[in-house]
Amino acid sequence: MPTDSPRAVVPLTPTGQPAPTQSFYEAVGGEDTFERLVTAFYAQVADDPVMRPMYPEEDLRPAARRLKMFLEQYWGGPHTYSEERGHPRLRMRHAPFVIGERERDAWLKCMRTAMDEVALPAEYDKVMWEYMKRAADFMRNA
């Protein structure tokens, strides 16, 4: 999964000075939005017959916290994920699990439902969904 954050183009003021910018993370509502997204996602995972077996922990809260930290960092928020866990190394972290088209599609179904629940403005939803599709496909190892 690509781990480079989206790069913001810095707009200039009429005097040529950099204008204040807002990260994607801030633009979509910051921590509250990512908390809602991850909560909605794991509510789907908990009942999904393909996804749930891929989470060995009985309690999904630690996995939810890790995903939230990763997404926040990726989209321009706090760097808590790297501070606590180091480089994401997502393919390595997911290597113990067989992830084929079926698993990718189940993950995307859960994420799409979560994103629909959060209901980002269309322009942000499109950008995030394109990333989610690329990331899910990148994680395939079977």
Automatic annotation (TrEMBL):
Required cofactor names: heme
Family listed: Belongs to the truncated hemoglobin family. Group II subfamily.
Keyword Transmembrane attributed: no
UniProt entry keywords in alphabetical sequence: Heme, Hydroxylation, Iron, Metal-binding, Oxygen transport, Transport
Recorded GO MF terms: heme binding; metal ion binding; oxygen binding; oxygen carrier activity
Region (Disordered): 1-20
InterPro entries given in the database record: GlbO/GLB3-like, Globin-like_sf, Globin/Proto, Globin_bac-like_CS, Hemoglobin_trunc
Gene3D superfamilies in the cross-refs: Globins
Organism: Glycomyces sambucus
Protein name, entry field: Group 2 truncated hemoglobin GlbO
Domain of life of the organism encoding this protein: Bacteria
Protein biosynthesis as UniProt keyword: no
Subunit structure: Homododecamer.
